[in-house]
Amino acid sequence: MSDTASPENPYGTPTTTGPEPIRSYQAKVNTLIRGLLKVPFLSGIVGKHLATLHVVGRKSGVVYDVPVAYTVHDGALLIGTALRPWVKNLQGGAQVRVSRGGAPETFTATVYTGEQDVIELFAVIARDNKQNAKFNGIGYLADGEPSKADIYQTWQQGGVVVGLTPR
Questions:
Q1: What pTM does this model have?
Q2: CA atoms within 13 Å, Cβ hemisphere of 100
Q3: Is the pLDDT of residue 74 over 60?
Q4: Looking at residue 35, what is its pLDDT?
Q5: What was the pLDDT predicted at 2?
Q6: 3-state DSSP: the chain helix, strand, coil percent, rounded to 5?
Q7: What does the buried/exposed string (b/e) look like for 39-61 if buried means 16 or more CB atoms within 10 Å of the residue's CB?
Q8: Dihedral sign, CA of 24, 82, 72, 101?
């Protein structure tokens, strides 16, 4: 075995190959979703698990509108994703505006990158939103619970959870 081999998964064999890659058409889908979230009647339907984050660039000050899937848990919003550039702008307790079909709300962000936090919080997200779980490479066991082996694999491949607490 070489020194570059990835560590063995302590939860067993994953049921998936990991998170899905970003598709070439994702920018068009994001534009469509952002538009649907602005339409009063449709935003309530589309926005059940979707929101737009208005993320301010740390260096540029440019506002990026990022559509995301979220789960409500203990009064906070949880977003499972990879450590993408927009996520880096939320580190350090950044404030972020979030639109969920109504007026934008302000939240304080926490980016969870540690193994145990990511496994615990991604399990919460996967129980609530099976489509988001599939996108993030998380399958389910026979008892209906999300696979910890899959969540661990997602974490190994750069998966993080963003927690947003209302201000």
A1: 0.84
A2: 15
A3: yes
A4: 67
A5: 41
A6: 30, 30, 40
A7: eeeebeebbebbbbbebbeeeee
A8: negative
